[in-house]
Design goal:
Elements lengths: L6 H21 L2 E2 L7 E3 L2 E3 L1 E4 L11 H10 L4 E5 L13 E3 L5 E6 L1 H16 L3 E7 L6 H5 L13 H4 L27 H18 L5 E6 L6 H17 L6 E2 L13 H4 L8 E2 L8 H14 L7 E2 L14 H13 L4 E4 L10 H14 L8 E2 L4 E2 L7 E5 L3 E6 L4 E5 L7 E7 L4 E2 L4 E3 L3 E5 L6 E5 L1
Parallel strand pairs: 4-13, 5-8, 8-9, 9-10, 11-12
Antiparallel strand pairs: 1-2, 2-3, 6-7, 14-16, 15-18, 16-17, 17-23, 18-22, 19-20, 19-21, 19-23
Length: 460
């Protein structure tokens, strides 16, 4: 049958399509207009908090149960590297492996992409925001590079000579010895390699762009030239625009000090990066951790953007601080006005262990009581405060939250003497409020933490 579709039907379909596109745009994650330091999703301001147990999260076999657990404790934020280091027996590569053991970069491994598709669907159904890292830096160095499909010794598509890529890279990524990250036109212009890099990104975007709950980070802990990240940010944004959607991108630099010049490539270029990931600040401890983040927050105060922390380090089993450091960093990040906070995977972080779950539950208890998006860091309202003793997050004249990492006592200037006030204490690790609220009077209040533990005082 060869019948023409009536023009009125065509018109209705076009109208429906445009309405659907507009509705989808309104539902996507974007910067919150009323306070650009935060995100909004489905038209509502949202604080992103979470924790998860792996980097390439889409590959884990129990992904559904893990996401269910995260959602059950108030988590709504995960990290996902597009990685396959093969250090787990369940991981697979993105490209098809031939019978001779080599890879064909012109053919896909369907299992890899089916896992990615399922992950996006499951996170979308649970309103969990995904921050993707496109290039998993450590995949391209040392033993990971030796087994990688894009290593010229492992594929049938190019050689060392035609690609300009090395077979062996024994150095740490900070040495940037792999020309894989110099393929772009502005640097080495390695067209043979770039076409396969673009093909990989295009394939990823074919799955992710239809979803509105995805943020894009170009790299993990990179030290390469800024032009690399700028290229891929523009590439992804252009592909999104061509598909009729808008996406938000960032870069993650390796330097632990946010004042290091390499971070300038993100902080100083809002036209390229919609937000700034400052995860590496979570190597800092105590008061320095807070101060360094606040300096950068002040730096972009005239043109606010979300500051994300997709990795919070610290675990008794790791090298980057202990459990206490991780918990303190999580709460300091939120009280410091950052847009996201997620516990890094074990053993470098708490992942989604019992302590991480308790913090997530406690954070949601707090966010039911205060307007996060109208509040600001206000340590200036604290008196008799020692270094790292307490941190204040407040909507002055309305609500004040004070976090105590290890007990202590401070004064709080609530600035209003005539309004009735009350103090309530939240035990963070048991995620329970102490019974009742204590009435207080005057404009200066003394807050004395009930014990040397993790406490949060709420003054309303």
């Amino acid at each position: 049958m060869n019948q023409r579709i009536p023009w009125i039907v065509v018109g209705m379909l076009l109208l429906y399509g445009s309405l659907f596109a507009a509705e989808a745009a309104d539902q996507r994650i974007s910067i919150y207009p009323a306070n650009p330091a935060y995100w909004q999703y489905k038209g509502q301001a949202v604080l992103l908090v979470g924790g998860s147990k792996d980097d390439s999260l889409f590959q884990i076999p129990d992904i559904k149960a893990h996401l269910d657990l995260l959602a059950s404790v108030g988590g709504n934020y995960v990290r996902n590297t597009m990685s396959s280091r093969m250090d787990h027996d369940f991981e697979v590569q993105a490209f098809r492996r031939l019978d001779n053991g080599q890879y064909d970069l012109d053919q896909w491994n369907d299992e890899y992409w089916q896992r990615f598709a399922r992950f996006l669907k499951l996170t979308h159904e649970r309103d969990i925001i995904v921050q993707i890292e496109v290039w998993a830096t450590f995949d391209y160095y040392r033993e990971n590079w030796a087994a990688h499909p894009m290593n010229p010794k492992n594929n049938i598509n190019y050689t060392v000579k035609t690609s300009g890529l090395p077979v062996t890279v024994d150095s740490h990524p900070t040495q940037t010895k792999n020309n894989f990250f110099r393929s772009i036109p502005a640097v080495n212009n390695q067209a043979v390699v770039l076409q396969y890099q673009q093909r990989f990104v295009d394939k990823m975007l074919s799955y992710s762009l239809p979803y509105g709950h995805v943020l894009y980070c170009m790299d993990n802990e990179t030290s390469v030239t800024p032009e690399w990240g700028w290229y891929w940010s523009r590439y992804i944004r252009d592909k999104a625009r061509a598909s009729g959607v808008t996406v938000c991108t960032t870069e993650m630099w390796d330097a632990w000090d946010l004042a290091n010049p390499m971070h300038n490539a993100t902080f100083d270029h809002p036209e390229i990066y919609a937000f700034v990931d400052i995860s590496q600040n979570n190597h800092q401890k105590g008061q320095a951790h807070w101060d360094n983040a606040q300096k950068q927050r002040a730096r972009i105060a005239a043109k606010r953007r979300p500051l994300n922390c997709v990795k919070i380090y610290g675990a008794d089993t790791g090298r980057f601080g202990n459990d206490r450091d991780a918990l303190e960093r999580f709460w300091r990040n939120v009280f410091g006005g950052l847009a996201s906070a997620r516990f890094h995977r074990p053993d470098s972080g708490l992942g989604l262990n019992d302590k991480a779950q308790a913090s997530l539950l406690s954070m949601r208890l707090l966010t039911r009581e205060i307007d996060v998006f109208a509040s600001e860091p206000h340590n200036d309202l604290l008196t008799d405060r020692q270094s790292n003793e307490a941190y204040c997050f407040a909507q002055p004249g309305h609500t004040y939250a004070v976090f105590f990492p290890n007990g202590g006592a401070v004064g709080l200037n609530v600035q209003v003497a005539d309004k009735p006030k009350s103090v309530r204490w939240l035990n963070i690790l048991t995620h329970t409020w102490q019974d009742g609220a204590t009435p207080v009077t005057g404009s200066a209040i003394t807050l004395n933490a009930p014990s040397k533990d993790y406490w949060m005082a709420l003054v309303k």
